[in-house]
Amino acid sequence: MSPFTILPVLLPLIGGILMLMARPAGIDTQRILSLILTSLLVGVSLVSFQLANSDIYQVVLLGNWQAPFGIVIVLDRLSALMLLLTSLLALGALWYAIRTDTDKHGQHFHVLFQLQLFGLNGAFMTGDVFNLFVFFEVLLIASYGLLLHGGGRLRTRAGLHYVVINLVGSTLFLFAVGTLYGILGTLNIADMAVAVRNVSEADQGIVATAAVLLLVVFGIKAAMFPLYLWLPGAYAYTSAPVAALFAIMTKVGLYAIIRVHGTIFGEAAGDLAFVHIEWVLLLGLITLALAALGVLAARALRRQVAYLILASVATLMIAIGINNEAALAASLYYLIHSTMIGAAMFLIADVIMKGRGIYSDSFTKAIPIDRPIVVGSVFMLLGIALTGMPPLSGFFGKVMILHSALNHPWFAAILSVVLIAGLLMIIAVVRSGSLLFYSVQKEEGQKTSPLNKSAFVAVFLLMLVSPLMVLFAKPLTDITSQIAGQLFNGQAYIDAVLSTVPYGDNSK
């Protein structure tokens, strides 16, 4: 075990405490500290990624109790990828928040930002279901504060909707966890995977019900049909850097499905094997169809971007539902793309909104924005990437997902929904671009807000991820294939967690 293993969880927790203590020193001190800590987190995540690349599971037994009795932190290839993705995204969102003074619009922005990272990283590394619940609550509490940061009628209304549905989700989570503990006698994910193989026939129905209940809970986090209605409002009305950071929030739900359901209800689970998988695929297809209609019907850019994020989540659910190693590798490639490009799209929407003044981001004729060629070009590239048009990363991700589905019995449905939804989204984004950049009116005395070049750097760097993912597609797909291979070898995860002995115990 490397001492670096626990740092991605501890660093943002310490950061949150430091931010709170630094508050009397002023916002500038908090900004510098927050940037330093988030940059450090990128470095720590890179080291963690390198550690996980050795194919050796890094297992930390907190309290020095052997699993399944103590709290277990596990670093593998998937969790390392999610840590790195989160830290890079956070750095971009934080930079934009500081350069646009978004962090000055309310209290404790930087404290909440660090606690959000603490909850996210903890969820990606925990080895038991109860602590997954705990980290979910931490990240949700921080997200409530960030979502409402700055106030406003629409933001408050969307925030209340978000809070209520997540409270319902938390309650259902406890019901599911209690049921599984009552039958299996453990909440350690590796130990649950072993216990579920020996469940009696009489208890299989109860365990299957709890598995579906857990899927509902993770579906709320991932914004799965019919539990997605909170997302368009919440993401559209919060501040741009918070919406950008939240691009990873829906992926937490998908990560939990891959980790919890994939490990406990994997191939070795007997009659309960893959009890969830057809539901994930079916609901993914429905979510994608409705998300595409939402993109088409949106009357403002931020709401349209929120539906585009929903469409990307649905595409990932379809890939998970295809349930083979190639599909999972493709889904991880698409996950990196959709998270970074979705975040950049929220930021460019904010740039456009500020440039249009009183016309905001509505699809109506407005004054021309400052530097329309630069902003319009970036918007066009992001639109191409996010809707899955060639030659950018969204296209490659979708092609890989569809290729992995060639032998699936639902292939015709998958192909039809993905292609038709993609076409609808392309039409909608092209129409939006035309309205925003070509349908302009010049008014005497109306001054255009100058482009914030320093903040725009964050948009540009996030956008660069897409062409880089195309240029380095081969090594990147090699990495995602290795991660998928490790995930499909669930026994290796179980052995690594259950065979790790406490420090100083040489009896084994």
TrEMBL record:
Alphabetized UniProt keyword annotations: Cell membrane, Membrane, Transmembrane, Transmembrane helix
Subcellular location, record wording: Cell membrane; Membrane
Highest taxon, organism lineage: Bacteria
Ranges annotated as spanning the membrane: 6-25, 32-50, 56-75, 80-98, 129-148, 160-184, 204-223, 235-257, 277-298, 305-322, 334-352, 373-390, 410-430, 451-473
Annotated protein name in UniProt: Na(+) H(+) antiporter subunit D
Organism: Methylophaga nitratireducenticrescens
Protein's UniProt keywords contain Nucleotide-binding: no
Domain NADH:quinone oxidoreductase/Mrp antiporter transmembrane: 127-418
NCBIfam families xref list: PRK12666.1 (NF009309)
GO CC aspect terms: plasma membrane
A Pfam family assignment: Proton_antipo_M
A single GO molecular function term of this UniProt record: NADH dehydrogenase (ubiquinone) activity
InterPro entries for the chain: CPA3_Na-H_Antiporter_D, NADH_UbQ_OxRdtase, ND/Mrp_TM
Membrane protein topology class: Multi-pass membrane protein
